[in-house]
Write a sequence for this structure.
């Protein structure tokens, strides 16, 4: 049974946010939490999300409580949802359901939370007390959709509303311990994130990452390849046999990635969850877009350069290139990104 969330202030509204299931979306959800905290300073904020996301939520000062709902992907998990709901009864005044699936709205309904807000989707009649129509022409970005659900219905189009940029806390002590444990140097570090959970149509060719890594190491930079265990082989392709390059894929926790990315001067990254983490710790982003669109899921930072070729077939939003060539990324050469890294460094020196 979940423990009562700590109180932020007398008579403050108690709000439960049902969080998304992707790393990048969870980071973007912080914009909603920041908006709620700003508009309701006495409120209590809890986030219910998959257990893997708790290390990210712990880095968000707006979150009073993180509630793990561990249901395997593709499973309904009725008993687990019912048990979680039982522990939440009587604890919240309002629920905001970010995913649009039917099952994501089930726990707030079973917990008998009086007000339950979310977008129309999967016949959620009855599960939500306030179902909002999603106008994709107005709410054309994921972050806008999240923030809109925290606003009154009449303000949900975001007219005049400023979208706060996510900002994750960095643990300097853990950062120092990681440098020592992973035998990282004091050279200027460039992070590389070759993975993208969505699929290969979002992944810059590994040969391009490798060529860029070779050029950077030759210039005295340290290259850190970050990702999960699934990215370990890709990390080897980029870093193996290259002095000054470290394949850290699968060797760190998600919380460690936050601190390691904050320790990098710049990162070169696909449109991925770690891209949004890097943006939220203030690192310079060199963002590579292929099948997805930077207009829909941009890094939420002013410190980024977008690389997007906008070939005639993109964005297709497919997991695998339907035409078999992935020109949108293959034709984005390493030299382009290398120039962008140095162009930004030149502006810093001049500044």
């Amino acid at each position: 049974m979940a423990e009562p969330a700590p109180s932020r202030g007398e008579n403050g509204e108690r709000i439960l946010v049902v969080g998304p299931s992707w790393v990048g979306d969870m980071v973007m959800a912080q914009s909603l939490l920041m908006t709620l905290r700003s508009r309701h300073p006495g409120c209590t904020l809890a986030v219910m999300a998959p257990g893997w996301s708790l290390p990210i939520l712990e880095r968000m000062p707006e979150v009073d409580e993180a509630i793990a709902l561990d249901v395997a992907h593709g499973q309904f998990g009725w008993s687990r949802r019912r048990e979680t709901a039982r522990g939440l009864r009587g604890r919240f005044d309002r629920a905001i359901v970010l995913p649009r699936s039917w099952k994501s709205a089930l726990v707030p309904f079973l917990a008998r939370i009086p007000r339950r807000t979310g977008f129309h989707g999967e016949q959620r009649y009855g599960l939500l007390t306030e179902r909002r129509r999603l106008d994709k022409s107005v709410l054309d970005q994921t972050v806008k959709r999240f923030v809109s659900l925290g606003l009154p219905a009449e303000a949900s189009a975001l007219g005049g509303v400023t979208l706060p940029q996510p900002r994750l806390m960095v643990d300097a002590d853990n950062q120092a311990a990681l440098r020592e444990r992973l035998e990282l140097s004091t050279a200027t570090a460039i992070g590389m994130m070759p993975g993208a959970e969505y699929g290969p149509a979002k992944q810059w060719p590994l040969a391009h990452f490798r060529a860029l890594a070779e050029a950077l190491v030759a210039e005295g930079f340290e290259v850190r390849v970050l990702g999960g265990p699934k990215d370990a082989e890709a990390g080897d392709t980029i870093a193996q046999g290259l002095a000054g390059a470290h394949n850290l894929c699968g060797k760190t926790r998600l919380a460690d990635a936050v601190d390691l990315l904050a320790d990098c001067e710049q990162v070169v990254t696909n449109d991925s969850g770690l891209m949004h983490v890097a943006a939220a710790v203030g690192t310079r982003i060199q963002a590579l877009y292929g099948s997805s669109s930077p207009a829909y899921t941009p890094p939420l930072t002013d410190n980024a350069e977008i690389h997007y070729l906008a070939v005639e077939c993109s964005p297709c939003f497919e997991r695998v290139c339907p035409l078999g060539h992935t020109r949108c990324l293959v034709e984005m050469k390493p030299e382009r990104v290398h120039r962008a890294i140095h162009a930004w460094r030149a502006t810093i020196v001049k500044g």
Observations:
- The chain is about 30% helix and 15% strand.
- The domain at 14-155 is CATH 3.40.50.2000 (Rossmann fold).
- The mean pLDDT is 92.
- The first helix runs from residue 23 to 39.
